[in-house]
Amino acid sequence: xxxxxxxxxxxxxxxxxxxxxxxxxxxxxxxxxxxxxxxxxxxxxxxxxxxxxxxxxxxxxxxxxxxxxxxxxxxxxxxxxxxxxxxxxxxxxxxxxxxxxxxxxxxxxxxxxxxxxxxxxxxxxxxxxxxxxxxxxxxxxxxxxxxxxxxxxxxxxxxxxxxxxxxxxxxxxxxxxxxxxxxxxxxxxxxxxxxxxxxxxxxxxxxxxxxxxxxxxxxxxxxxxxxxxxxxxxxxxxxxxxxxxxxxxxxxxxxxxxxxxxxxxxxxxxxxxxxxxxxxxxxxxxxxxxxxxxxxxxxxxxxxxxxxxxxxxxxxxxxxxxxxxxxxxxxxxxxxxxxxxxxxxxxxxxxxxxx
Amino acid sequence: xxxxxxxxxxxxxxxxxxxxxxxxxxxxxxxxxxxxxxxxxxxxxxxxxxxxxxxxxxxxxxxxxxxxxxxxxxxxxxxxxxxxxxxxxxxxxxxxxxxxxxxxxxxxxxxxxxxxxxxxxxxxxxxxxxxxxxxxxxxxxxxxxxxxxxxxxxxxxxxxxxxxxxxxxxxxxxxxxxxxxxxxxxxxxxxxxxxxxxxxxxxxxxxxxxxxxxxxxxxxxxxxxxxxxxxxxxxxxxxxxxxxxxxxxxxxxxxxxxxxxxxxxxxxxxxxxxxxxxxxxxxxxxxxxxxxxxxxxxxxxxx
Lengths: 355, 303
Fold this sequence. Notes:
- The complex is a heterodimer of chains A (355) and B (303).
- Chain A contains 10 helices and 14 strands.
- The radius of gyration of chain A is 24 Å and the shape is globular.
- Chain B is built from 9 helices and 14 strands.
- In chain B, 47% of the residues are buried.
- Chains A and B meet through helix 7, helix 8, helix 9 and helix 10 of A and strand 7, strand 9, helix 6, helix 7 and helix 8 of B.
């Protein structure tokens, strides 16, 4: 029996995403444990695992975020196939090698068969590099990884009985990386498999960077020296060269912040250009003179829709863009400038409070 | 006499921006040094300091990047007013307090009277928060005066600074020369201040073209000044490392998020524009617009 578990803080989101996916893939005998969140995600997941551990005939426990929607109708078969090897402890649809901290995407990502669906700016989706079955990059492969993204984790029976999420780490961040490290430390494997999912998530990837930073520190502290390369910096310093690590990381943080400001400024410039183009069109004589025709057409569409005809305003199909969660490389150019320290009302350039 | 100095790596930039700006601001007796840049900006600026130092009547040396255009006809008057205080060594139009590294924008910025002019996406401007104090209300934190460091794209140096300070050529090629010279001035007991100098910075929106070099320079500068202020031995480097590594990762995610937001916004705007351009009324009226364009072109033709 394959069980499903979810920790819910937003019943609406659960209905929209996780429940829909579970209903699609669950088998008649599947148990679904949809619990209200009990404190931290770690604690909530442990509660689910404890309950499932008491059940007989469990083949796997699938832990889903409430905003994760499983979309492979043959999901259970894929899971059974992946767990045929008794050494496999946990399986996911996104994973990476050489992961050194909770930011798994800074490792070498080998698989990502999900799409990120967002609602901002009219909505859309960004496919990870193996979400579709075509055009996989050369580095794409399922198999053993260091860690998974925890938005969907398939837990093997041995793991259900023997491993628990570390509730001392915080509320949410880093639970997946820590869990995978525990599984690997126990001699079991962490694997990716080709099942598809939709992650319904805002484009704001971190809502509270300070909480995330604290989790990063705690997990690094826990694992340094225990499961190499966990806890090491991304650039390969000696484990305990703290001064070197501090100086490098402080500089990297400064560079990352400035790059973000640059991206925001470019986005603002693009938006301004589009606005100018739009104004050129909408202020043109032909556009203004044909306005009555457009109003008439809109009214006709409305009337047809009211009569039970086709809905005139069906939503635009979401587009797609490459999304391997790696920022595009910074193009090389001449000497740098500093961020524009903007007026407080302009949010695009360096905002003194957060830029 | 107020002198001007520029290290030129692209003559066309100097001819288009720095040169005309200097012509706008200079006084009849001003010396102008436009030198080709022989190596690092540190070395190029030291040559300019050496040349300016030979003038016995030097009141100030204004060093500016080749892509900086002075748009302030009263720049010399403002520079003179600033250096009326003999304790002032360096002045600039952007400055911050509590600047702990060469990333001065992570400190508390108190003044920024420049406008960033870019040429991507059809071009545009991004005025800094105190670029027009005459017409726009300044934010509460805007004030002129003493700062820890200034941005070096334009910096005015007092005669004392010209004769007693030198850019540290061991630090690299470009980054951090401004932070370092300000630290030197302050270590010598002099002040670094902001002044309401109006300039345009003609620059790409790409602010970090070579992060690796920038990171190296930041490390060297932090090491230099932390070892000099005597606190290096007492630092909890492990705590700093843990925090900074986490911050770097967090800022990396925020950068990815900014990229995704930008792409989503772009897609929405393009869809909006496409929906208009593909509408029946826009397509059916295309011949009229073509005719109108031809008529306009004929009217504008000379003769």
